[in-house]
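input
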Amino acid sequence: MRIDKILSNMGYGSRKEVKKLLKEGAVQVDGVPVKDAKQHVDVNEQEVTVHGEVVEYKEFVYLLMHKPPGVISATEDDVHETVIDLLEHEDLIFEPFPVGRLDIDTEGLLLLTNDGHLSHQLLSPKKHVPKKYYAHVRGRVTEEDIEAFRKGVVLDDGYETKPAELTILRRGETSEIELILTEGKFHQVKRMFEAVGKKVTYLKRTEMGPLTLGDLELGEYRELTDAEVQQLKEYRVEV
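output
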């Protein structure tokens, strides 16, 4: 890859700014100053430094975020704060985007990446990637609801959902539940409970495929480990 593209991709400035760095002799490849912006470098075999600092090149970024309520799952918006607004500059330079979406008032696990191929794989209906949610539901959730969800319920637009695994954690005027879905229709969790005469008052996604939210605080995010990225790429569901 061209040295100017490597450096601009890694946030060292625009092509013009990178050319200035090269001209000043600030860039070295394997200890040798490089001034030609067109020079090709093997990022896997050669060491690039800028002012003596090693450039750790990577093509893709994979971020696990605990999305807060009130923030939308989009790359830009004229009214609301987006999940992209929560990122540091060092991650923004990769231009990541959310994989799927969580409603504005829903919190929890959200994956952001610039790896379009992996995003497509995870969102493909054929993949059946399970997503686990924790929710507060107004109304007493019953064994009948568990059975209805297991069979699939008909939503307000006539769509019949795929089977879902509902677990009751606490029954009462407000029940606490966990729900595992393998699809992601618009407002699906809320609409499924509406189909059985109940209302979701709090919703949080805790798992997606092999990923878990862990102890990330609201608004925090971290980079996936190499092992987690590999797990995602190899993830398969027996259907």
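quick obs: Helices lie at 3-9, 15-23, 89-92, 116-123, 143-151, 188-195, 226-234.
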